[in-house]
Specification:
It is an enzyme of class 2 (transferase). The protein has 13 helices and 16 strands. By secondary structure, the protein is an alpha/beta fold. It binds adenosine-5'-diphosphate and aspartyl phosphate. Adenosine-5'-diphosphate binds near residues 214, 245, 246, 271 and 272.
């Protein structure tokens, strides 16, 4: 056991912390610091910042027939990875550089296949997009080796991450946990630091899957559960979870403690700081997740654990927003009074696997409104149109969903009123309201152009810039 009382930590480094050789070297030093204190560390890495979006564009370009644009992007990516490898001390004929070169060649072939077929299936998209994490793991190994440690990089599949076949949004299979333990224990016993490519897994038949955007957090917690880690640490470029997106609210504060449920709500309602399912593997075991600032490693950050830590003065802990939302209004006085019709609307949406951000039904039963990400609006509309009947379906784009989150609002009166008053005072019109039955959040749909001013107004109304009052 180390001086800090930990014996095993899983550490996740996101895109910013893997952005270039200097960032990777600094990230490696944070892992090495704990290793040198006697902690066993498993490192999980994301792609270098921007690479996942670049890969998605490469795949789209190939599908559209623009292979020249795709190849130019691959060449630029290759230079970026080679430069980083070189700056981390790899010679041009080293195994690491050879491996990076071979991976780019396989990527080029996969992209060419998409171009020839002009078809991009979710499965081939996952194969292409996972190269970001496959390419960054050898760079982290190099940095750890340069600091005098032994490291071994592994793909998600090699590390034992086994998923279902829901390409693009895969979930871990129950057997993954034993498998991860089998695959990683040997390295740790031998004093080798495993460096796992995050975001990706493998089906039982060996096809590469991805866990959804931001999925490296999820990879880290899956591994944390499998190895019974003391804690999982997500290194960020911010102090942890903040009371609002710090790019929008200048005086946003760090939230020191959150429950698993609270952080899930926050992630679901757009706080980009964590994957919405990331804490699910930790819930049974109670393993804490800690989000820490890589530029201020001694700051404790945000501790996410089973129990909330409530402070009477602050029933709300954070305010967050989802941009680019569409509202879909279904009206039909006669038809919507029939329960089966409403059920078939939701069935139709579930069949196309769309996440509903908000739902409300008027008590006169003449109207159902739903909010979805604008990228899902077309598919939602066609699914709803297939239900048929005498329904009128209308879409409103350019909407945002604003949510307040905090378990302290449970049973406390006046919280919603405070939010609505703040919005009215800021001249923001509310289009739709919903409160989860768990009373962990209240969400409203508003005009997308007003989302920043609304966030600032609500943040101020709940005095989220003030330090929490310690509970007695
Ligand atoms: N409530 C919030 N708390 C903290 N960060 C937030 C919040 N909402 C949005 N963010 C943004 O999320 C970013 C961190 O996202 P993340 O995906 O972890 O980055 P990376 O991939 O570089 O690790 C921060 O830079 C911050 O701007
Ligand atoms: N690279 C993936 C997975 C991920 O978790 O990235 P990050 O840690 O940079 O958010 C993505 O962009 O979605």
């Amino acid at each position: 056991m180390s001086q800090t009382g930990h014996s095993l930590l899983v550490m996740k480094f996101g895109g910013t912390n893997m952005g270039d050789a200097a960032a990777i070297r600094h990230s490696a030093s944070l892992a090495a610091r704990s290793v040198d204190e006697g902690v066993k560390v498993i490192v999980v890495v994301s792609a270098m910042a921007g690479v996942t979006n670049q890969l998605l564009k490469i795949a789209d370009d190939a599908q559209k027939g623009d292979i020249a644009a795709a190849n130019d992007e691959i060449a630029a990516m290759r230079t970026r990875h080679f430069t980083a490898a070189q700056e981390l001390g790899a010679s041009p004929d080293s195994a690491a550089v050879r491996e990076i070169r071979e991976m780019h060649e396989t990527l080029r072939q996969a992209v060419y296949g998409v171009y020839l077929l002009r078809e991009l299936t979710p499965r081939s998209r996952d194969l292409i997009v996972a190269f970001g994490e496959r390419l960054s793991a050898p760079l982290m190994s190099l940095a750890l080796e340069q600091s005098g440690h032994r490291a071994k990089h592994l793909t998600g599949g090699e590390a034992g991450i086994l998923t279902d076949t829901n390409f693009g949004n895969a979930k871990p299979l129950p057997t993954t946990y034993e498998r991860i333990k089998d695959r990683l224990s040997g390295f740790m016993a031998a004093g080798v630091i495993p460096v796992v490519s995050g975001f990706m897994g493998e089906t039982e038949k060996g096809a590469i899957t991805t866990l959804g955007r931001g999925g490296t957090d999820f990879s880290a917690t899956i591994i944390g559960k499998a190895l019974h880690a003391d804690e999982v640490w997500g290194w960020k470029d911010v102090d942890g979870v903040m009371s609002a997106d710090p790019r929008v609210v200048a005086d946003a504060r760090n939230v020191d403690t959150l429950s698993y449920g609270e952080v899930m709500e926050l992630a679901y309602f757009g706080a980009k700081v964590l994957h919405p399912l990331a804490v699910t593997p930790l819930q049974d075991s109670g393993i804490p997740l800690r989000l820490k600032n890589s530029r201020d490693p001694d700051f404790p950050g945000t501790l996410v654990q089973a129990e909330p830590n409530n402070d009477q003065a602050h029933p709300v802990k954070a305010v967050t927003a989802i941009r680019n939302v569409s509202l879909i209004n279904v009206t039909g006085a006669g038809a919507l009074g029939v329960p089966q019709v409403v059920a078939s609307l939701f069935d139709a949406i579930a069949r196309v696997n769309i996440t509903l951000l908000m739902v409300s039904q008027s008590s006169s039963m003449s109207n159902v409104s739903i909010a979805v990400q604008s990228g899902d609006a077309e598919r939602t509309l066609s699914a709803l149109r297939e239900v048929g009947g005498d329904l009128r379906i209308e879409e409103q784009d350019g909407v945002a969903v604003l949510a307040i989150v905090g378990s302290g609002m449970r049973g406390q009166k006046g919280v919603s009123a405070r939010m609505f008053t703040a919005l009215a005072d800021a001249d923001v019109n509310i289009l739709m309201i919903s409160q989860g039955s768990s009373e962990l959040n209240v969400s409203v749909a508003i005009n997308g152009a007003e989302v920043d001013q609304a966030t600032r107004a609500v943040h101020a109304a709940f005095r989220l810039n003030e330090a929490p009052v310690a509970a007695d």
